[in-house]
Amino acid sequence: MSDKYIFSKDRASKCLADALLNVRLKYEKMGVIVNTKFEKNMYGSSTSSNPFFSQKEFGVSIGVKRYIENMAKIHGCDYARSQDLVYSLHDIFHEERHIYQRAVLYQDKDANQNIVDMAKCDIISGVFKEYEKIVYHHKPSEVDAELYSWQKTIDYFDTHFLDRNGHPLIDARAEMLDELHDIEYDRNRSWSGDT
Fold first, then answer.
1. What is the DSSP string of the chain?
2. Mean pLDDT score of the chain
3. Region of residue 144 (left: phi > 0; alpha: psi -120 to 50; beta: else)
4. Buried b vs exposed e over 7-26: b needs ≥16 C-beta within 10 Å?
5. Residue 149 and residue 155: Cα distance in Å, rounded?
6. Beta bridge partners of 77
7. What residues contact residue 120 under an 8 Å CB cut-off, 6+ apart?
8. How many CB atoms lie within 10 A of CB 51?
9. How far is CA 24 from the centre of its chain?
């Protein structure tokens, strides 16, 4: 577990709020409504929509319970644990990718077979919850969202919050690997966001 506290709660929370706002505004320009919120009583994150209709409205909930629970008071100020900041931003990018899948990729009449298969798998998962539970970690849409969110999170921290020499203050790769290690060895947690 990483226990680095570099940013104040206010600075870290503004980073997350700005990232979530940017997702909403990006899709608003495309005529897609994205209702976003941070969930203080939720660990995981989710994107909701009706997969049977044209994808023009989504709900995105980003769980920040662990982010809040791990705040530390240093010299009288609350600080965010870096690992939680990184993984919360990762969750925002992960859910952003699900919006893109549904609002853009799945609506493309000329989509390649991989995209068509991804969409079919999501529709089947929406109808049969047993299927969803068994294949969740292997669903093409989840693998795609994870790849996108890892890349985007690493890029974000490689270009934001730099020291005087232009080096990242937070190593996002290391923080995400620490988070996955914590998840792997804690039977009460899952990277699928259900705990």
1. ------EEHHHHHHHHHHHHHHHHHHHHTTT-EEEEEEETT-SSEEEE--TTS---EEEEEEE-HHHHHT-EEETTEEEE-HHHHHHHHHHHHHHHHHHHHHHTGGG-TT--HHHHHHHHHHHHHHH-HHHHHHHGGG-HHHHHHHHHHHHHHHHHHHHSSB-TTS-BSS-HHHHHHHHHHHHHH-TT--TTS--
2. 90
3. alpha
4. bebeebbebbeebbeebbee
5. 10
6. 74
7. none
8. 15
9. 14
**Alpha-carbon dihedral of residues 127, 131, 135, 141, nearest 10 degrees?**
-10
Distance CA 111, CA 116 (A): 7
153-194: per-residue pLDDT in tens?
999 999 999 999 999 999 999 998 888 777 777 666 665 544
pLDDT above 70 covers what percent of the chain? 91
Two tokens, residue 76: 């009288």
Q: Which residue has the tokens 């985007």?
A: 152
- As a whole number of angstroms, the distance between CA 35 and CA 19 comes to 14
Burial classification of residue 29, based on how many CB atoms lie within 10 Å of its CB (0-12 exposed, 13-18 middle, 19 or more buried): exposed
Tokens standing for residue 33: 């409504």
pTM of the predicted model, to two decimals?
A: 0.91
All residue ranges of the chain with pLDDT < 50 are: 193-195
Tell which residue, 33, 24, 49, has the closest CA to residue 106: 49
Closest CA to 80 of 34, 11, 138, 32: 11
